[in-house]
Amino acid sequence: MANRIRLGFVGANVNSTWATQSHFPALLASPDVEFTAVCTTRPESAEEARQAFGAKLAFHDFQEMMASPEIDAVAVVVRVPSHYEPTKAAIEAGKHVLTEWPLGRNTAEAEELAALAQENGVQTAVGLQSRVSPALLYVKELVETGYAGEVLSCSVTTMRDGALERPSSRTWQRDADLGAHTLTIANGHVIDALRFVAGDFARVACMVSTQANQWYETDTQQFVEVTSPDNVRVSGQLKGGAAASVHVGAVPWAGSGFRMEIYGREGTLVVTGSVSSQRGEMLRVQGAQGGHELRDLELPERFVFVPPDFPQGDPFNIGQLYALFAEAIRTGQNRAPTFDTAVDLHRFVDTLKRASDDGRELPVAQRTPSP
């Protein structure tokens, strides 16, 4: 294996919104990963991507890319309903694989992929970037080392813009069965950030709702029915005893972004950002001990895994994820969120959905440690 991890990228279309905002600039700036191969669904777009990113190889069939001996690992960055097939093909070809969150359309797909990866002995990473955010890594350490003392109460709110008008190419997420909506994606990232920092839930009550049940397609000039939820409200208790609440919503205008508050016997921690826990600008961390005035806390350099000149904004945490993914491939020690992490979150989201459907508080299953 070369010094840099040779990566094949499924979903390398140069017009891809999320990959263009995050993955492509992160890979081009990465000292750990070589952008070796690109894969799209058409020869023309694959060649366009190869030239745009300086990749060595271009494919329009992901099965052919998986067979290449010139790549060590694969990134799967396509729409959620299409995660399963290329991820499975990569694992079966013995390639290490990084797949965006959610890992699959449902928990069954995620469980199958995680089990297959374990059977084939490949390293995995999933796009739960909150777990590699320097700010949240620092807050997790502060909580664990007693900055706030015993945590009594915590809350998270995240309100993100969710346009009621969009072109038909962007209305596919209206179908809840496709697994890409506020409950799974925005809420998944945000509630995972809370669980990562403050600990798992012991029991939860939840209300999941679709407040906007139609979207307007600007090109077809038609309204389409929406079944995907856009608001998630969670109330519960963490295993450590703290009371916890979460509200994640897609709102039409001027979403207020991300805010996490942790209150303990000895102090308070507050984390804020203009978008969400896993993306956007570097989160702001503030704290107070023995007083009522918050002050800014400086983030330690030890939680930064990318070079000082690395692109800021959306590429940053993606770069952090690729750095830990490359480290896992080289050393076998995986500090990144893995497919097992993803399965655990898929199961927790299922519990939230059941709690909402049943209208009652539910216990949260204990996490099963990886063997």
What portion of residues belong to β-strands? 25-35%
State the secondary-structure class. Answer: alpha/beta
Q: How can the largest sheet be summarized?
A: 9 strands, mixed
State the separation between the terminal residues, measured CA to CA. 27 Å
Shape, per Cα inertia axes: globular
Task: Name the helicity range.
Answer: 25-40%
In DSSP terms (H or I, runs of 4 or more residues), the helix count works out at 10
Radius of gyration: 20 Å
- Whole-number mean pLDDT: 95
Q: Identify low-pLDDT runs.
A: none
What is the number of beta strands? 18
Strand order of the largest sheet: 17-16-15-14-7-13-12-9-18
Please write the string of helix (H) and strand (E) elements: EHHEHEHEHEHEHEEHEEEEEEEEEHHE
Summary of the model, kept short:
The protein is α/β, with parallel strands linked by helices.
Can you put this structure into words, describing what you see?
There is one protein chain. Strand 14 and strand 15 form a beta hairpin. The two termini are 27 Å apart. The chain has helices at 17-21, 23-29, 43-53, 62-66, 84-92, 107-120, 134-144, 186-198, 314-331, 339-358; strands spanning 5-10, 33-39, 57-59, 73-76, 96-99, 124-126, 151-161, 165-166, 201-209, 214-217, 222-225, 231-238, 243-251, 257-264, 267-273, 284-289, 295-296, 362-363. It is globular and about 60 Å long. The mean pLDDT is 95. With 371 residues, the chain is of the alpha/beta class. The strands form 3 sheets. Strands 17-16-15-14-7-13-12-9-18 form a 9-stranded mixed sheet. The protein has a 6-stranded parallel sheet with strand order 3-2-1-4-5-6, with helices on both faces. The chain has 10 helices and 18 strands.
